[in-house]
Each structure stands twice: as structure tokens, then as C-alpha cells.
Design a protein that fits this description.
By secondary structure, the protein is α+β, with helices and mostly antiparallel strands. The protein has a domain at about 5-185: Rossmann fold. The protein is about 25% helix and about 30% strand. One of its GO terms (biological process) is methylation.
Length: about 375
């Protein structure tokens, strides 16, 4: 496998569109950013597996030029990423995801770009090839990850500005930026990124709400300190460390039992609306006692709920406990979305600024 093979694959998939990024990919061989040992997770079909350059160099190189995530760190460095176990905390993102984000970022000649999350350095190298390294600043919170990225970039012949620090704070001494490119999941857009982006500049990030799937969010900064924009397809990224979720806790707890006629599988269609109305409620599908359930919890850890799906049932069991009745809140939010006419995800967007962050429907002034 070579860069040409990967470029052809990404063109066929529709992720790679512009000649500028095709030239950048040829200038930045991906294998230079793949560690000797790691865990490979193919996009779509394919079985995750360990890769080891010494043990099987052909498999290692094939993984380097496949549309696959390469997990490079587990448990913030405490685990072995090549085992596939533990929490994945840093990676070389799949090429299709990387290129689709860069196409959406759409930097212009001479733009200055702030990248949040250096990782292996591959995306910083692509940006450097496209714009020139002196116009690229990349910040990485993990010192060991940043040190390895610096080595990778040097071997590839690029020297963007590298900063070790909390990406949530940005890099104010190098502002203003024309583009902010974020490679980690974000639930609440940090105000610092808006402040460090010039009016008319773009912030592109994986919006990872507490409820439902992540989305690409492309926001444009206004003249009054806000950022406004829409969502553009799915995105699933490791979280910004300062915004990691507390999780769901015990999924099989006892609580107050009721029943609902609303099929829990139906609720997913309203995920953006529910995330906008209930921003502090976590929601995901999980298997509990052999049944697929919609699991809910609040960020404060005070309340939880689950609703189980049973094939062919007239109604469905709900168990919930704590200070709030989270299933009741989610059901009410879903029915409100139905009353709006079940608007599609392409009709929603996000506005963020000093007053906070809100989801909007159809126009930024119509926040929900």
C-alpha cells in the first residue's frame, strides 16, 4: 500500500475532493506517523488488530495506508495501546475522517491555523504542507505525545509551531487565527477559541453532545464575540481531556418502575433536539440483562434511568431513580420535537459566546 493507493481510496469514497489536499497527502507519507506497535481499527468492515512493525512489516504498512484509526495511546499512557484494551486516549485518526474535516475547514492561502490536539502530528503536517509550517500552530496536552509528534514532524520535514499545554485555553500569544481545527471531541465550545479567532474566521470541531451521536460543527466567528454555524455529518472522537464525561455508572440499578408506549429506539431520531433541550443529560444504547436499553444519566451524577426494548411489546419498562426523572424529561423533549414536525438534523445548528452555548432550529435566533 502507498499514498497513491490511499488517495485513490479516499477519492472513491468522496472524502477527498480538492487537488490541494491530494498534493498535501503525497507530500506527507502517513507511515512516518505510525508507531512501531499500535492497535488498528478499520473504518467500516474489518477486524481490529494489533500491528507490530518488527513482527509483520507488511501488515504494519498496510495498516498505515488503510482507512483505519491507529490507536497510539491507552489510559493516558498507562496502558499498552497494541493490546486494544483500556480507554483509548490518543490516536492517528482514520484518513477519511481527517480529510473530510480538512475539506470542510477549507483554509485559504496565507491563513493562520490553530490546531487543538497534535496527536501523532500527521494533520499538522498536512496543514503545514498546504499553508506553510510557520502559519500552523498545534497544541497538545500530553507531553509524551507532543514529544513523539515533534520527532515525527521533523523526520517528515515539517516544523510547525508546537505547544505543550491545555488546548482548551488555545494559544493567545499567537492569535488571531483564521481557522481553528479541533481533533478531539468537544461538548461545550471554549470561549477562548472564539476570542482567538478573527471575525469571519472558522472554528471546526467534533461536537460530542452528552446525548446522541457526535457531529462535525463548522462555526463562523461574528463581530460581537459569538460563533454561529451548522452541523455537517457524523463525527466520533476522543474527548478533550477537560471535558470527559463522568459516565453512566451502574447500568443495572433498581429504581422506580413505570411503563411507556414510546419505543426507546425511536428517540434517537431526535438526538440533536434532545441534546439542545437537555444538555446535561447523557444518553446511549447499551445491553442490560440481554435487552437493548436506552440508558440515561445526568452530568451531576444525581439521577439515572433506563428504558428497555422488547420485541413486539405493547409498552416498554422504564426504571429511573435519583433527584430527577430523566426518562420523563427525555420523553417530553422527544414529543416536543415531534410537535415541531420532526425536523431533520440538517435544520439544526449551534451558537456559542459569552452568554453560553445553545442549539438552534432553522435560524440562530430560534434557540431551543
Amino acid at each position: 500500500m502507498t499514498t497513491s493507493d490511499l488517495v485513490r481510496l479516499l477519492r472513491e469514497s468522496g472524502d477527498l475532493l480538492s487537488p490541494e489536499w491530494e498534493r498535501a497527502m503525497h507530500a506527507v507519507p502517513r507511515h512516518l506517523f505510525v508507531p512501531d506497535r499500535a492497535w488498528c481499527v478499520p473504518e467500516g468492515a474489518g477486524t481490529p488488530c494489533a500491528i507490530d512493525r518488527s513482527a509483520d512489516p507488511e501488515q504494519w504498512r498496510e495498516a498505515a495506508y488503510a482507512d483505519a484509526v491507529i490507536v497510539t495511546q491507552a489510559d493516558d499512557g498507562a496502558g499498552d495501546p497494541a493490546s486494544g484494551e483500556g480507554a483509548w486516549t490518543s490516536s492517528l485518526s482514520a484518513p477519511g475522517a481527517v480529510v473530510s474535516f480538512l475539506e470542510l475547514l477549507a483554509p485559504r492561502d496565507h491563513d493562520r491555523v490553530l490546531e487543538i490536539g497534535t496527536g501523532t502530528g500527521w494533520t499538522a503536517a498536512l496543514l503545514s504542507s498546504r499553508l506553510g509550517a510557520r502559519r500552523v500552530t498545534s497544541v497538545e496536552v500530553d507531553k509524551r505525545v507532543a514529544e513523539k509528534a515533534a520527532v515525527n514532524l521533523r523526520e517528515a520535514g515539517f516544523a510547525p509551531g508546537l505547544v505543550v499545554g491545555d488546548g482548551e485555553k488555545g494559544v493567545p500569544e499567537r492569535a488571531p487565527f483564521d481557522r481553528v481545527h479541533v481533533t478531539c471531541g468537544v461538548t461545550v465550545l471554549p470561549l477562548s477559541w472564539i476570542e482567538q479567532t478573527r471575525p469571519g474566521g472558522v472554528i471546526l470541531f467534533p461536537w460530542m453532545p452528552s446525548f446522541g451521536d457526535g457531529r462535525k460543527a463548522r462555526l463562523t466567528v461574528t463581530g460581537d464575540g459569538r460563533a454561529i454555524g451548522r452541523f455537517h455529518g457524523l463525527a466520533n472522537y476522543m474527548m478533550l481531556r477537560s471535558q470527559r464525561s463522568p459516565g453512566f455508572g451502574d447500568l443495572d440499578r433498581d429504581g422506580d418502575e413505570t411503563r411507556t408506549r414510546l419505543d426507546p429506539r425511536t428517540v434517537a431520531g431526535a438526538d440533536i433536539a434532545i441534546a439542545g433541550m437537555l444538555p446535561d443529560v447523557l444518553g446511549a444504547e447499551r445491553a442490560v440483562q440481554g435487552l437493548m436499553c436506552l440508558i440515561l444519566a445526568d452530568e451531576a451524577g444525581t439521577s439515572w434511568a433506563r428504558c428497555s426494548h422488547r420485541a413486539g411489546a405493547d409498552d416498554f419498562p422504564v426504571v429511573q431513580g435519583g433527584e430527577r426523572r430523566l426518562w420523563d424529561e427525555v420523553e417530553a423533549a422527544y414529543l416536543r420535537w415531534v410537535e415541531w414536525g420532526c425536523p431533520g438534523r440538517d435544520r439544526f445548528g449551534l451558537v456559542a459566546g459569552p452568554e453560553g452555548q445553545r442549539v438552534w432550529l432553522d435560524r440562530p435566533s430560534n434557540t431551543i
